[in-house]
Amino acid sequence: MNKSTINFCPVPIEQQPINEYEKLKESWLFDWGTLAIGQYSQKIAWVCFWSAILVIPLAMSVFVPQHDWFHGFLSSLVGICLLTGIFISRIYLGWQYIKDRLKSDRIFYEESGWYDGQTWIKPTGMLNRDRLVASYEIEPILARFHKTYGLLGMAISLSSLIWLIIG
């Protein structure tokens, strides 16, 4: 085999997993996973703030603040955590999709439209490179989201437990 045969890749450039990764890494919402922990925390705090603006009035309409403010607070906390979790899930799923494409030994791509999909088997060099990127670049991002989910889950669990204890 000559060198041009080895380097040939029929997958359009924008559908190659490594290029999808680069594009995702630079996009507005998905770049949150690549931010320093302080900047990431600020972004999550903003999502929590806007979730609170949506959730607190709803909780106040169900639990009258003068009579049952504590249950209103607990239900607001759960709502904020759920909305934040849903928002983060969108980012997480985008990163997970790219990780799966990078780790796969095959690339599914579309030549000109949705009706003519093809599959191409990655050469060993490309597969090794893609798997390294997935392991060392994307898995830490996903681990950060797992920790965020854990914190949100603990807040929901603690709120629910307090609700059950207080009655």
UniProtKB/TrEMBL annotation:
Keyword terms, alphabetized: Membrane, Transmembrane, Transmembrane helix
InterPro entries hit by this protein: CGLD27-like
Transmembrane segment boundaries: 44-64, 70-93, 149-166
Pfam families membership: CGLD27-like
Protein's name according to its UniProt entry: CGLD27 family protein
